[in-house]
Amino acid sequence: MLKFYDNLTVINLDVNGELRSVTVRPSDILLDVLREQLGLTGAKPGCKNGDCGTCTVLLDGMPVKSCLTLAIETIGHKILTIEGLGGMGSHTQIQEAFVEYNAFQCGYCTSGFLMVCHALINNKPEADEYEIEKWLESNICRCTSYQEIRSAVESVLKNQPKYV
C-alpha cells in the first residue's frame, strides 16, 4: 500500500524476513534506505554506479546492486542483507570458509562478496569453475583477495550434500 505525503511515500519492505515501513522519495535508492532508515549498514556505499558490488543484497534470492535499485522497486519482494544471513543454511559455511581461506583483507567488499557467494551456493550448487568466475566478477576487491574468495566458494560447494 502506498501513501503519498508531499513527494514522500510510505512503503512496506520485506527486509530479512521482517516487514518494515519506510518513508521514501520516488528516487531513493535501496542502499540509502537500508543504511539511513533501517540502520542496516552491512551493504556499503562504494562507487554508487553499480561497478564495485560493495552494496550487494539479495532480492528474491538473487544478487542486486542496492545502489542501482530504487527502494520502491522492491515492494513485494524479499530483501536479504548481510545482517539477515543469521539462521540461513549456508551462511556459516561461507563465512567460515572466508575466514579459513583468508578471503578478505580490509573487509570493505566482504559483505557484498558474501551475499553473492551465498546466492551462488543456493542457486548453483553444481557450479563449475567458469560459473564461479562469472558470479564473482560482479564484485571488486581492491585488496586482490580473488583467489582466496574463489577457494572459499569452491570449498563450500565441494562439501554441499548432493541430492538425487
Automatic annotation (TrEMBL):
Alphabetical UniProt keywords: 2Fe-2S, Iron, Iron-sulfur, Metal-binding, Oxidoreductase
Domain 2Fe-2S ferredoxin-type: 9-85
Domain of life: Bacteria
Pathways per UniProt: Alkaloid degradation; nicotine degradation
Database matches in InterPro entries: 2Fe-2S-bd (IPR002888), 2Fe-2S-bd_dom_sf (IPR036884), 2Fe-2S_ferredoxin-like_sf (IPR036010), 2Fe-2S_ferredoxin-type (IPR001041), 2Fe2S_fd_BS (IPR006058), Beta-grasp_dom_sf (IPR012675), Diverse_Oxidoreductases (IPR051452)
Keyword 4Fe-4S: no
Molecular function as annotated in GO: 2 iron, 2 sulfur cluster binding; metal ion binding; oxidoreductase activity
UniProt entry tagged with the keyword Lipid biosynthesis: no
Protein's name according to its UniProt entry: Carbon-monoxide dehydrogenase small subunit
Organism field: Anaerocolumna aminovalerica
